[in-house]
Amino acid sequence: xxxxxxxxxxxxxxxxxxxxxxxxxxxxxxxxxxxxxxxxxxxxxxxxxxxxxxxxxxxxxxxxxxxxxxxxxxxxxxxxxxxxxxxxxxxxxxxxxxxxxxxxxxxxxxxxxxxxxxxxxxxxxxxxxxxxxxxxxxxxxxxxxxxxxxxxxxxxxxxxxxxxxxxxxxxxxxxxxxxxxxxxxxxxxxxxxxxxxxxxxxxxxxxxxxxxxxxxxxxxxxxxxxxxxxxxxxxxxxxxxxxxxxxxxxxxxxxxxxxxxxxxxxxxxxxxxxxxxxxxxxxxxxxxxxxxxxxxxxxxxxxxxxxxxxxxxxxxxxxxxxxxxxxxxxxxxxxxxxxxxxxxxxxxxxxxxxxxxxxxxxxxxxxxxxxxxxxxxxxxxxxxxxxxxxxxxxxxxxxx
Length: 400
Known about the structure:
- The protein is an all-alpha fold.
- The protein is about 75% helix and about 0% strand.
- A two-stranded antiparallel ribbon has the order 1-2.
- The chain is elongated and about 140 Å long.
């Protein structure tokens, strides 16, 4: 320590004003100091320095305590916040779990699981190879496929009877009722012959496992399965088709029997619609294969194709039927259906070995789905035919 210090120097050293230092020395230590130029030395100076060193240590302790208290407060606040955040997370997780449970329940309904009651080991199934496989599939899925078909048919039957009584109470001409029937047949056929559940069952419970084997994806085998499935589905669709015949018979007896309209045309039209709306979904299934690994439909092409084809068949053909003679219309529709069935068979034989497979659907940066090369090859097939006729050298195609 310094031997001598003036009062103003001591005040400066300990960051106090000269007046404060003078008052402190007089009151705290009882020293008789005349002015700021007075000198402290020896024991007096040592006592004052010790006082200030103790005061500093006390201040440091207090500051440490304050820091600790602040840290504790911050910890408590952070704990409260984390507790609240955890509560909110738990609530969100519960909501997510509820949604996932609902989705899983819906998906389990669509899973089309085979139960013990669906399997009859004593029942013998005739046939070999793909015939046996197809019969076995429809036997074991009878409950899943028959029930929704019966429900749809019953609803249609009830609505048909209701419309029958409503039209009976109204004063409408027979020609107007005939037009309504012609326009309504394709729309009703589309609803009744829809095959979403059947196609999902095909993929989930049969094809998703067999598609890994090359023999199953051979052209002849795929075409064989296509026709076997068409026959089985058409037999199942005989239930709603029969309901349509019965409802039409009621309308014909009540409103059309005494008129000059062709009563056979609607019957033939119902039959042709049944063939078309049975072949079309199967054709799309083998060529587009719209399902992913989980069995969900993810195909933009399928949606676009349905919009185009259903618009033509539901709205275009009935309008054509009203403008043409009945026999000409039946002939055109017959040719169209036969040509479509032949075209579908040829395309399945030609392209299904490449398109009918397990697919990985991934979203691109544009938000669209990536399609495999066989897809592009199938949709470029008409252009390739056009190229051969026009003798084009090159045809530049933009990659999807």
